């Protein structure tokens, strides 16, 4: 099964909720007028896209409907997809890892799928011929290190780990040294799941970033925030909070399979102006793909 098919299948709940409601609007209205657009705006808001983003999309759609004299259901849906895609296509979504070594710092709250995402990204990089080292800087939970080691082994990456409770910044320091010794291409740093309202955890994240910036000043750096796609509107506030503590370069949206809240991805990008770089649909090591906005909007409408 190709990734687009997996995406379509995984996003089926979002699509069913979305598409069915839009089709019902067409059945209720004889023409595409202001009442129709208000109803459509309500659907977007209820689909976790968010109020501000939904209003923006409908305003743009309204202008196009007038200008292009759109009335047909198929054409309205096409225009709606295009307006959503414009929001998602804010910037280059590729990873910038041109130096040797480069570093990827992975952050997010507990339970969003950081560790599995690291394994999947490491696997993609290894398939591209990159030598990868993974730093187990979540030293709060022994299980976190064990889980990361399993994923690193599956991806063919080396892992740097220390005993539970060690200062995470010291693990990162050691990992940078080992990355250089092994002449590796990319260092991926796992971090403890932190709530954005826990100051000491955010201070620790800043300490890790300082070590990376001091020891790898000329290296390309990606800071990826992992978001659980099933959390809906709460995900938008998570991104805003992490933006204040770290220079987030991209988002990884996980767990979009089996949720009807997939529309939140559009709201996240619109409100935070940070690109989605990867999207996860499924548990397998290959079930993560570079984000494609066209495929995404086609999978939900």
Quick rundown:
Helices cover 53% and strands 14% of the residues. The protein has 301 residues and is of the alpha/beta class.
Task: Report on the architecture of this protein.
This protein has 301 residues and is an alpha/beta fold. An 8-stranded mixed sheet has the order 3-2-4-1-5-6-7-8, with helices on both faces. The protein starts with a helix and ends with a helix.
Summarize the helices and strands and which ones pair or pack:
Layout: H1 3-10, H2 12-28, H3 34-46, H4 51-68, H5 73-88, E1 102-107, H6 114-127, E2 132-137, H7 142-155, E3 158-160, H8 168-181, E4 186-191, H9 199-215, E5 221-228, H10 234-245, E6 250-254, H11 264-272, E7 276-280, E8 288-290, H12 293-300
Parallel strand pairs: 1-4, 1-5, 2-3, 2-4, 5-6, 6-7
Antiparallel strand pairs: 7-8
Helix pairs in contact: 1-12, 2-3, 3-4, 4-5, 5-12, 6-7, 8-9, 10-11
What is the structural class? alpha/beta
Radius of gyration: 21 Å
Low-confidence stretches: none
Q: Which overall shape is indicated by the principal axes computed on the Cα atoms? A: elongated
Strand content: 5-15%
Please outline the major beta sheet.
8 strands, mixed
Q: Can you give the mean pLDDT?
A: 87
Give the % helix. 40-55%
- Individual helix count: 12
N- to C-terminal separation? Answer: 20 Å
SSE series: HHHHHEHEHEHEHEHEHEEH
Q: Main sheet: which strands, in order across?
A: 3-2-4-1-5-6-7-8
Total beta strand runs = 8
């Amino acid at each position: 099964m190709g990734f687009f098919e997996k995406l379509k299948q995984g996003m089926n709940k979002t699509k069913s909720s979305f598409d069915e409601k839009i089709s019902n609007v067409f059945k209720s209205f004889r023409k595409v007028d202001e009442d129709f657009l208000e109803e459509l705006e309500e659907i977007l808001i209820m689909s976790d896209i968010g109020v501000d983003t939904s209003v923006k999309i409908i305003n743009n759609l309204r202008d196009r409907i007038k200008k292009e004299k759109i009335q047909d259901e198929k054409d309205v849906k096409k225009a709606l997809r295009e307006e959503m895609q414009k929001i998602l296509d804010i910037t280059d979504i590729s990873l910038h890892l041109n130096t040797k070594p480069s570093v990827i710092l992975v952050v997010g709250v507990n339970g969003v799928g950081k560790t599995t995402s690291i394994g999947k990204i490491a696997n993609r990089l290894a398939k591209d011929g990159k030598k990868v080292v993974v730093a187990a800087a979540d030293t709060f939970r022994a299980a976190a290190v064990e889980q990361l080691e399993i994923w690193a082994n599956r991806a063919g990456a080396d892992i740097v780990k220390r005993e539970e409770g060690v200062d995470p910044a010291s693990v990162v320091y050691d990992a940078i040294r080992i990355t250089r010794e092994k002449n590796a291409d990319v260092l991926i740093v796992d971090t403890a799941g932190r709530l954005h309202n826990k100051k000491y955890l955010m201070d620790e994240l800043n300490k890790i970033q300082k070590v990376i910036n001091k020891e790898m000043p000329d290296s390309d750096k990606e800071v990826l925030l992992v978001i659980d796609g099933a959390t809906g509107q709460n995900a938008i506030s998570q991104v805003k909070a992490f933006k204040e503590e770290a220079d987030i370069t991209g988002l990884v949206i996980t767990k979009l399979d089996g949720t009807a809240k997939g529309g939140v991805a559009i709201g996240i990008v619109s409100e935070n102006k940070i690109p989605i770089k990867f999207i996860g649909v499924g548990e397998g090591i290959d079930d993560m793909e570079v984000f494609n906005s066209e495929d995404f909007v086609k999978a939900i409408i």
